[in-house]
Amino acid sequence: MFYQRMCKEFEEDYNIKPEDNISYEYFTTIWAEHLPEFKIPKTSEFVECSICAQLKEDRNRAKTKQEKEIISELLKKHFVQVETERKVYHATREQARFEPDEIMCIIQDGMDQKKTAIPRLVNEDKMTSLLARIRLHITGNIIHTNVPGGKIIPAYVDLLNYPHDSNLSMHLLLQTLFDNRARLSRCLFTQLDNCYRENKNRYMLSLAHVLVQYKVFDMVDLHFLPVGHTHEDIDQLFSCISRHLKKTNIYTMDDMERAVMNSYNVPVFVKHVEGVFDIKKWLLPHMVKNFKGQSKPLHFQFKEFDGKVRMRYRHRSTSNWRPVLQFKDDDFTPIEESKG
Predict the structure, then answer these.
(1) CA 5, CA 238: separation in Å to the nearest integer?
(2) Where are the domains of the chain?
(3) How many CB atoms neighbour CB 135 within 10 A?
(4) Which has the closest alpha carbon to 268: 176, 170, 184?
(5) CB 3.0–4.6 Å: which of 2, 7, 191, 338 could bond 107 by disulfide?
């Protein structure tokens, strides 16, 4: 699957013909020799996309060859749409590495809580397996920029003593921007998990508006992948952390932070979350109550036009931008554009 995807992307992006690529045997040899730590699990840990699941179920129930072919073609088109969205992020992160003054690219997501409870021992026995566990949560960010390794990785550890909602997501994003304020560029591109509770809501959209309103950035993009297809390079980071934790005895919070710092081939800067600003409370008085419809688009963009910060969106990267909403220039309140 990975070899086929590589050949396809080389052909589409670099006009390299399939026959000019290395053989599958050589591909697997290079993988085994240089990337032995990367393993492909037999089963995926991610929830399957509802569209994929439905189409696969319909194909299994199809009674004729023609029906199966039609459904297979629909499934193929769906995969193409997903890959097209994925390439938006991939292209932007490459641009951020070559043009760090033009664009700052950040991806943010949380790690599976089941893998981070402490104490965590390499060899469990009957007594240690009965120990009470303290639940931890790790939120990771990757800033793609022109540094050795191409990325800066802050990770935030909390004890689940704060609600995991948009307030925490906004706080950690702002913390990342503040800690890397010397690297702020003209534009900001954020790749976020397609989750209404944490990211895809009116609070995060309003924060993006504020970042343009107060001249932190000239333009801010919020980009999401389709639900069920949101796994990205940050999940590779979490996978490396998980594998390292399996080989390390973790007794305390300090042990966990040290283990996370040493788990990846690029330095991971770990911080303990000791407080969260109530950003939602600050934004709420300036927001319209009937703001809705943000759950379907995958891409939102904020920038100033004619002295006002405006938002536009598109359902997919192949769709046209729709400037349906604008914002007042005095208090960043979203208002519907008149139909006339």
Answers:
(1) 23
(2) 1-36, 86-336
(3) 13
(4) 176
(5) 191
